[in-house]
Amino acid sequence: MAGGGERGPGPGPGDREGPFGAGPAGASAVNRPRTRLDIPRAPRRALLPEYDPEAFGRVSERIARFLGTWRFILWMTVIIIVWVLWNIFAPATLRFDEYPFIFLTLMLSLQASYAAPLILLAQNRQDDRDRVTREQERKQNERSIADTEYLTREIAGLRMGLGEVATRDWIRSELQDLVREIDERRPARLPEDGRRSDEGDR
After folding, report:
1. DSSP label at residue 5
2. pTM of the model
3. Is the pLDDT of residue 197 over 60?
4. Please, are residues 45 and 63 in contact by the beta-carbon 8 Å criterion?
5. Domain-located, residue 71
6. 107, burial (CB in 10 Å: exposed 0-12, middle 13-18, buried 19+)
7. Which residue from 28, 26, 31 is spatially nearest to 14, judged by alpha carbons?
8. How many domains are contained in the chain?
9. Mean pLDDT score, 152-179
10. Please, what's the b/e burial string for 32-65 (b: 16 or more CB within 10 A of its CB; e: otherwise)?
11. CA 59/CA 61 separation, integer angstroms
12. How confident is the model at residue 198, as a pLDDT?
């Protein structure tokens, strides 16, 4: 029919363009991977090699302890003396570090540059242990103080309660007073009882 009774293929409900007119709005959603919040993300690949910091710390502490002993000083002294004497008195073809012993200086500098961080690392680990120990001691002291205060209050309450309780000595003193009072009243009644008995006999 003239007048365009038939409708041409127009854009459907799912063929709407995006906000920038680049295409359908669902195209970008299909191409973009969805990230689910209930699935943990895969760990990233680290460029640096992984290591156990606890094991490295233990090794550094052992090295630091060895550096602070007389054995290390003795061995270092022996090595330096042998090094110097060898490079002075050995044949020229066997000397590997001529005077002024540049290689020896380099080795000592390298040893010092590694020893200082190891010692600092050992000190940091010791500081961490001391901090944990102090925290535990503080908590233990707080518990001890709380227990002491509780026991003090309980003892004070018991003392106040015992102040109102009749003790054995108090009961004994009261009984002795009663017995003494009875003994004091008994001689006054004996003559009257005697007269009454005599009158009854007559």
Report:
1. -
2. 0.45
3. no
4. no
5. yes
6. middle
7. 26
8. 1
9. 81
10. eeeeeeeeeeeeeeeeeeeeeeeeeeeebbebbe
11. 5
12. 54
- Looking at this protein, which amino acid is placed at residue 72? F
Check: CB of residue 69 under 8 Å from CB of residue 62. Answer: no
Which residues 6+ apart lie within 8 Å of 67 measured at CB?
A: 115, 118, 119
Is the distance from CB of 57 to CB of 125 less than 8 angstroms?
yes
Q: Tell me if 99 is assigned to some domain.
A: yes
153-178 exposure pattern, b = at least 16 Cβ within 10 A, e = fewer: eeeeeeeeeeeeeeeeeeeeeeeeee
Picking from 2, 147, 126, 7, the residue whose alpha carbon sits closest to that of residue 61 is: 126
What the block records as the tokens of 94 is: 């066997």
Which of 25, 9, 7, 6 is closest to 17 using CA atoms? 25
| 64: containing domain | 53-163
* Residue 104, amino acid: L
Cis-peptide into 100, omega within 30 deg: yes
Residue with tokens 């919040």: 37
Per the listing, tokens 């669902």 go with 26
Structural domain contains residue 155: yes
In a domain, 5, yes or no: no
Mean pLDDT of 7-23: 48
